[in-house]
Structure formats: structure tokens, C-alpha cells
Amino acid sequence: MYLHSKHFLDIETLPPEDIVLVLSTARSMKEISARKIKKVPTLRGKTIINLFYEPSTRTRTSFEMAGKRLSADVVNISASTSSVAKGECLKDTAMNLQAMNPDILVIRHSSPGAAHYLARILDCSVINAGDGAHEHPTQAMLDLMTIEEHKGAIAGRNVVIVGDITHSRVARSNIWALGKMGAEVTVVGPKTLMPPRIKELGVEVSYRLEDVIPKADVLMILRIQLERHRQGFFPSLREYAKLFGVNRRRLEGAKPDVLIMHPGPINRGVELEPEVADGPYSVILDQVTNGLAVRMALMYLLLGGGSADRL
Amino acid sequence: MYLHSKHFLDIETLPPEDIVLVLSTARSMKEISARKIKKVPTLRGKTIINLFYEPSTRTRTSFEMAGKRLSADVVNISASTSSVAKGECLKDTAMNLQAMNPDILVIRHSSPGAAHYLARILDCSVINAGDGAHEHPTQAMLDLMTIEEHKGAIAGRNVVIVGDITHSRVARSNIWALGKMGAEVTVVGPKTLMPPRIKELGVEVSYRLEDVIPKADVLMILRIQLERHRQGFFPSLREYAKLFGVNRRRLEGAKPDVLIMHPGPINRGVELEPEVADGPYSVILDQVTNGLAVRMALMYLLLGGGSADRL
Amino acid sequence: MYLHSKHFLDIETLPPEDIVLVLSTARSMKEISARKIKKVPTLRGKTIINLFYEPSTRTRTSFEMAGKRLSADVVNISASTSSVAKGECLKDTAMNLQAMNPDILVIRHSSPGAAHYLARILDCSVINAGDGAHEHPTQAMLDLMTIEEHKGAIAGRNVVIVGDITHSRVARSNIWALGKMGAEVTVVGPKTLMPPRIKELGVEVSYRLEDVIPKADVLMILRIQLERHRQGFFPSLREYAKLFGVNRRRLEGAKPDVLIMHPGPINRGVELEPEVADGPYSVILDQVTNGLAVRMALMYLLLGGGSADRL
């Protein structure tokens, strides 16, 4: 089995069999990171560029380590230290980087569609590491992997996504991913942070966390982006925490084996109570571990690797 | 054949046979970047430091990839995150880095002569990646390589350099390089951006782009540094674009196979019209590809490699 | 012989036999950096993360090169480009990094105890690269190595530490290290920069540099942190330089083979006269070279290497 595309841009158009292939490959990759010698020669002589227009420790580090554990050469470029400061447009930056013959360009950008645009103009593989409020497809893949690990199967599970649905690329990618894998998805959050036609994506909508907690197999809690708070999208962090913060008291109504997930970084005490974040139902750190595995799998598959090959 | 010096500091004092050696080695190196496995063990166990006091995506990335494709260890240091913030002088920073036994120090600095100074005090090889308005010798090498690729030979070609000649290290290095290789060089730009005794370098001088376009085999267009604009060196970007911007209308008077070159990043619509930058005569991205090859060649040759050796 | 702990956090609690083991291993490591191929496969497949909350060229570069020369994969994270900007706490950042299975986390942080804290919560090895005004244990190790190289033995040597003792983690680590190895330590500096109960650490205290120079085998000069000057800890840099600056005139009263040491970066003309910093008694650059060797030794030993193994 091979991927249908040489790019990994979104979950919306990703064939379900590609999701299955990435997940099964990621399981093999995870095993590599648990070895004493955490490195395979698979991508030796390949070049991977991390082009990050938005800062992110965990995502950049995850991609960097993924490339290095496959023996690729990894080059990091962050907007703050780049020619971007000199006003160069994304196209020129990308075309110039491509002229150095990279194999994969990993792009994070604040504009929705940035990764798709690069995939149209570049010959190398493009991985979308988050494009504005559009998609964050590797996050959805690692979330699927984590759910599958803990629940055995994704199909039929009730996943409740909590928070600022409107601005969340994590929510958007997960809605597509979970839907394709047969999960039931509910989104819950304040009305001001709920996109008007969200139901068309096949999800249930709620505005009261208490109403939907009881049925949840998974609570996927989104990060509240404090910078948006300042822009007036919601009145008060305290009020948000009071109505939508996930805490022990609220979890009393939950299933005994509910999974607590969060893409990080957590605003402790806002969207998630520290005791819950660090509690027995939290799989937040598993998500990070699986993120590395998923990114290794994607790099391997995008550069022509197949499910039958031995690592 | 071997290089005459263990440093690569300027074109002004570079023997022409060294230029020829770098160009021929760079052709071999270019082939490596086109392979499926873009990596040779040539510089395994060597350490290369990129010490950049001025930001630059493309040049830093080019040197970083060059080192990695030769299997060297590459360490990046940028002024903003370094002890420079603590007020350490260049000499102390360089002496300290040398104490860690690097093999090559690549230096970009805003002071003319910075690379020469380091070459005098350090034992390791020094590559000048741009020193103020003085020289940018690897840029000139990649420009020569690009012209040779497209024109077969450099000798006898008419090269017109357009723009801010006074402040351009790219212009200065190319004037030396093209002269040594037998090209005819014309510089053209506003009087306020033309150094007073420029003719002593053996170039023709013009102040009207239209006058010199017809004879050009190569149009080498310099970047207008917008920050200088603010300092009052020229009155208006619109006026500059009107008089010296290279556009399709102006190219109607050009030779049918004129090469369009630019060191990047481009100010689209100022010194270069987008349609020309992306048009059929543009070899701007070839310059980037060749830059990587030239830097690989230099690293290899400076550390003792010769033309007879097999890669 | 093996280290007693899998972390390297401070000198205060370090068994003297571990100091001896690190020093002897560092001597073997130093030889590697002098080879033509400065790289051994010892830590291939290991991942080392440099997590720096305070900027430092030399220390970060030293750890980075140490890891690379042992063939480890090294990932740099600096606070300015990390999620720290998003307000994530140290614990969450560290736990997330650990979820990617690193082998060693090198941490520099402005809070005393930061490294100890991480060692308590993480499974991977932690190296303290400086925690506030508490300790900088790898600096003390490289200082010991440098003294031993030049003086044959540390025991019985008179070491005079000059400067801002109160705020110096370098002083603190060296006081412990030198004491454990049998040296006599004197601290000298202005009263305002001398901790009240410093004598309890077993050192002699002086407030006049002239009084203690004659007996010194080693003058260890601390960096004056100019930012503290602004906070009013001492009245005038000129006055400090006059009373405690080490210069040629003052050294007339010194032993003929006194060693001049400084952790860098130097404020030339403040705590140290340029002629002395660059003079025949200065071993400041040896300290840098030895720093790399000590860090290679630590990485090797912390990951299970022993004195009997061949590199």
C-alpha cells in the first residue's frame, strides 16, 4: 500500500485508506523511538525543511526529531530570522528553498490554504503543519492514533470537542478525521465561538458542556487562544472557565474510562483543570509521543515508502 | 589542482585558476544534489560554523545544506540569540568558537573586512558570506557558474549590473569575478548610487538603462535595499522603478536570449517586474541551485580536496 | 567505573570520585576533537535536547558540538522561539519534550533549582547548564580540567575567585568543586557583592585584591554582569575596574606562573584588562576547549558509558 498523494495537506480530501495506512505505519515508527538506538537509515540523504511562520516548540521539534530519527537532514527556518523580515513573499521563499532540492517542505503559516498553494507550485512533497484556522492534519492523525491505542477502535466512539470551534484548525481536522473513521462527533462551546453552519459537517452541536459529557468516550479539549480573548471574542476567561473548563467536578458525570485529550500547550486553570490534565484519564502526553510517530510515518510514506517494506 | 588559500574571502585577490577550479568542482557537486541520496561522506567528522550577524534565509540555508550534504556537522549561530547581545566583540566570539576546533567558519557581518580580520586571527578556514558593502564572493561564484551554464563561456559576454552600485557587495564581487573571467561589465544606476571612481575597476558606466540594455548578454539586477531608501539615498521607490526597474517593455530592446539574474530576495515591482522575474529569460532559481553547489565545492576544496579526487 | 547518578545537576552533592571519572573521561574526549575526523559513533541514535531559557552562544554551541561529535541527534530549543512565548510552564514544556523520548535534556534557566526540578519529574538524564545564581556545574568541571592540565594537580593549589560572588553560579560551583579536590579557595570582591555567610563554605574571604594576588596559583575572574550594575548593586564600573579589575600592574605582585581564568564573555577593560586576557598566563581559550571535552564526557557517562570502555 502507498499513499495516494505525495503531499499531506488536509484531512478533508484524504482517502480513508490513507488514514489507515498512516496509522499502521505510525505504529511501526513508534517502536523505533522506544529502541535503544532510536534511528533508522530509511531517509538518509533526504532533506527536510521546516518552514515555520508561526512559532511552535512542540510541532517544530516533533517534525525535526521525526526527520532525524529517519536519518534525514533537517533544516529549520523560522519567520523571525528569515528573509521574511525583508518582505519576501511566501512564493519566492518557497521557490528559492525548492531550488536547493529538498525532499519535503513542512509549512506552518497563519494563512488558510498556504500549504495547498505551495503544493501547487512546488515539486517536492509538502506537509501542512497548520494553516491558519483551516487544518492541522498531522494533529488529527496523532489524535486518531491515540484514541485507537486506548479504545481499540475509533468507529462508534463518541468524541466531544470542547472550546473555540470557529478558530480551531485542530477541531476542523479532527471533525473530518473522526467522521471518516466512523466516530460520532459533538462540538460544544459558547455560541460566539461556534461557526454558523457547523452542522453541515455532520456533527452534533451543543452549548452546554454538562449535557454532552455523559456520552463522551473522548473529551477533546481545545486550547483557548488568549490573544483572541483580547480581541473581544469572549467576555472573560473566568466566565469561560466556569462554563466550559473541564474539571473534576464536571467529570463526575462522565464515563469511567473517558479519555482526556488536548493538543497543547495547555492554559492550566482555563480550559482544563491541572488535576484533570495530569489525572488518570489524561492521554495528553501519549498524544505527543504519537505525534512523533505519525510524522515519521508521513515522511516515510510521502517519499515513496510502502506498508510492505521493512524498516 | 588545489586552491591557493585555505580561506575564501574575496574575489579581488582570488587567482583566476582558483575560480576555474571552484566552478569545475561545483559542477560535480551539483550532480550530488540531483541524486536520490543527496549525501556523500566527504566531510564526515568536520565541523562547520555559520556565524551570521545579519539575517539571511537563503545564504544561511545554502551553507547549512551544503555542509550537511557533505556529511559535515553544521552549527548555526545568529547574532540575535548569541552572546553578541551581551556585548562581546567579534574577536572574542571568533576565538572562542575556534577553541571548539571547527574546520570552517562561515561569517556574515555588516562590517567590511570582518572575514579578512577573522582569517588573520583564526587557524580554521574562513568563508566570507558577505561583509558589509565590501564583497560577497560566493554570490559572484554562483553567478559565474550560472552564466557559464547558460552561455557556454563567460569571456566576451556583456554583463550589465543594474541598481545601487555604491552599497552592493554583490556588484563589487561580480565586477572582480567577471573581469577576471574576461567578461565586459557595465554598471548602470542613478548617479547618487554610483561610486565616484568606479571606472577604475575597468567597467563602463551608464546612467540610463535603455542605453545599455541592447548590448547585454546578462542583466544582473541588484536588490534595492528599502532600509537605505528611508535613509534618503534616493527620493522615491516609484521614481526608481520608473527609471531603473526592469520590465517587459524595456526588454523589448534586449537581445532575444538575454539572461535575467537577481541575487534575491526580490522586491517585486521595484527593481524587477514580476513577469520578468518569472519569465523565460530568468535564471534566478538556477542561481540558488548553483549557490548550493558552489558552497559545497568551496567547503570541499578549502578542507584539502583536489580536482583529481573522486567524490 | 560509572557515574553514581544519571543526572548532572550540581557539584555540591557530586561524589569526588565522579569528578575524577569525568575529568579522566574528558581527557580522552579532548583527543577526539583533535583528530582529523572529529566524530565517534558512541551516541548514534541518541537524542539530546538543549533547552535554553537564557541565551548563551558558547554554552549552547559547546553542548551542541559535544553531542554531534558523539553522533547524537541534537535539537536546540530557545525560549524566545518556543511555546514559552505562549505562557506554558516549565513542567509542561519538559514533560512534552520527554514524551518524544530524548535521552538527555540540557537545561539552562534563570531559576535556581530548575534542573533539579526537571530531574525529579523526568525519566531522561538532565544536565544543568546553569540555573540562576545557583550552580553551573559543567563550568566548574572544565575549570578543574584546565587547572589540572596546567598545574598537574588541583590539591593544595591556591585559587582566588574575583568579583561578584553573590550572584555567580560559576563561583558557587567552583567553590564546591575546588574544595572537593583539595584546593584552597579565596573569594575576593566588594562587600556589597559578597554573600554574608560565605565563610561557611570553607573559603577565605578578602575585600582587597592586592592582598590575595601574591599567593594565587590561579586567578579565576568572574564576569561583571552589566545588567546588575544598572540595578544598583555597585556604584560605578570605573570604580569596580579600579579596585577589582585584573591588570598588568596588579599582576606584578603575582606568582610568575599564575593562571588567568575567566568563564566568558569578557567585559574587556572592566573585570579584566585586554593585555591580561590575551597574555601569556591566560588559559581562557583552553577553558573553552575543555568545556567541549567535559560535555562530551558527561553525555557519554550519563548514558551508561564507563571508564573501561574504548571510544
Structure description:
Three copies of one chain form a homotrimer. Chain A is of the alpha/beta class and 311 residues long. Chain A has two domains: 16-135 and 291-302, Aspartate/ornithine carbamoyltransferase (Rossmann fold); 137-287, Rossmann fold. Chain A is built from twelve helices and nine strands. Chain A has helices at residues 16-33, 57-69, 90-98, 114-121, 137-151, 169-180, 209-212, 226-230, 237-244, 248-251, 274-277, 284-302; strands at residues 47-52, 73-78, 104-109, 125-131, 158-162, 184-188, 204-206, 218-221, 259-261. Chain A has a five-stranded parallel β-sheet. Chain A has a four-stranded parallel β-sheet with strand order 2-1-3-4, sandwiched between helices. In chain A, helix 2 links the parallel strand 1 and strand 2. In chain A, helix 2 (57-69) packs across helix 12 (284-302). The longest helix of chain A has 19 residues, at 284-302. Chain A is globular, with a radius of gyration of 19 Å. The two termini of chain A are 15 Å apart.
Topology:
The structure is a homotrimer of 311-residue chains.
Chain A: H1 16-33, E1 47-52, H2 57-69, E2 73-78, H3 90-98, E3 104-109, H4 114-121, E4 125-131, H5 137-151, E5 158-162, H6 169-180, E6 184-188, E7 204-206, H7 209-212, E8 218-221, H8 226-230, H9 237-244, H10 248-251, E9 259-261, H11 274-277, H12 284-302
Parallel strand pairs in A: 1-2, 1-3, 3-4, 5-6, 5-8, 6-7, 8-9
Helix pairs in contact in A: 1-5, 1-12, 2-12, 5-6, 5-12
